[in-house]
Write a structure and sequence with these properties.
Protein name: Protein-tyrosine phosphatase
GO molecular function, one term: protein tyrosine phosphatase activity
Helix content: 40-55%
Order of helices and strands: EHEHHEHEHHHH
Largest sheet: 4 strands, parallel
Organism: Streptohalobacillus salinus
Strand content: 5-15%
Strand order of the largest sheet: 2-1-3-4
CATH topology of the largest domain: Rossmann fold
InterPro entries: LMW_PTPase, Ptyr_pPase, Ptyr_pPase_sf, Tyr_phospatase_low_mol_wt
Bound molecules: O-phosphotyrosine
CATH class of the largest domain: Alpha Beta
Family: Belongs to the low molecular weight phosphotyrosine protein phosphatase family.
Number of domains: 2
CATH superfamily of the largest domain: Response regulator
Shape: elongated
Structural class: alpha/beta
Number of helices: 8
Length: about 190
């Protein structure tokens, strides 16, 4: 199995994900950027946070190609925008592309289900009102409020770019990615090193 991580510059987030997965498991892994400067070194913050966590890793940035997309079994992006860009450029990759977080945490299943249920309740009340039934406005408002509350609680699947941030920002990004990678290892039942 081949896992491919994708971010913007291929100098911060996707190299961290690649380094972590390569250190923890025997799976075939690579990383690419969507707007990378070909040959660029990893950012200083990335080098430092990897070294501080005992990870020996080196990488030169490069851009995602059709060959990479074809060779990968699973393409995991750092944000929903990366996912959309890949799906636009390489429509054949749709079924094997997701954000790292949503895929690793199995798309936050419980939270999504609660939100779907809340939409159904709201839709039903709305339909009743449209078809002339006497639905109290407060009831309609309350079911809409429930949707907003659940949406606000839904964790974002995006991992923001630490580029230009200080060591604390890089460490936070590293921790977020490491937690997601640990989930990924469990979900895919990968062989640990
Ligand atoms: N591509 C630009 C900007 C950039 C760099 C890194 C970056 O972070 P990441 O590698 O996590 O996408 C985002 C954008 C550069 O190399 O300077």
């Amino acid at each position: 199995m081949k896992v491919l991580f994708v971010c913007t510059g291929n100098t911060c987030r996707s190299p961290m994900a690649e380094a972590l997965l390569a250190t923890k498991t025997t799976v075939d892994v690579d990383s690419k950027g969507l707007m990378a400067r070909e040959g660029a070194d990893m950012s200083e913050g990335t080098k430092q946070v990897l070294a501080a966590n005992g990870i020996v890793f080196d990488k030169q940035a490069s851009n995602l190609t059709e060959t990479d997309v074809k060779a990968a079994d699973l393409i995991l992006t750092m944000t929903r925008q990366h996912k959309r860009m890949i799906q636009q450029q390489f429509p054949a990759a749709i079924d094997k592309t997701d954000t790292l977080k949503a895929y690793s945490y199995d798309a936050f299943e419980d939270e999504w289900q609660a939100l779907k249920d809340a939409y159904l309740v709201f839709e039903e009340k709305h339909q009743q009102q449209v078809s002339g039934e006497d639905v109290p406005l407060a009831e309609l408002a309350a079911s809409y409020q429930a949707i907003e509350t659940l949406e606000a609680r839904l964790p974002s699947p995006d991992i923001p770019d630490p580029f230009g941030g200080n060591a604390a920002v890089y460490l936070e990004t590293f921790k977020t990615i490491e937690a997601a990678i640990d989930q990924l290892v469990k979900r895919l039942n990968l062989t640990k090193k």
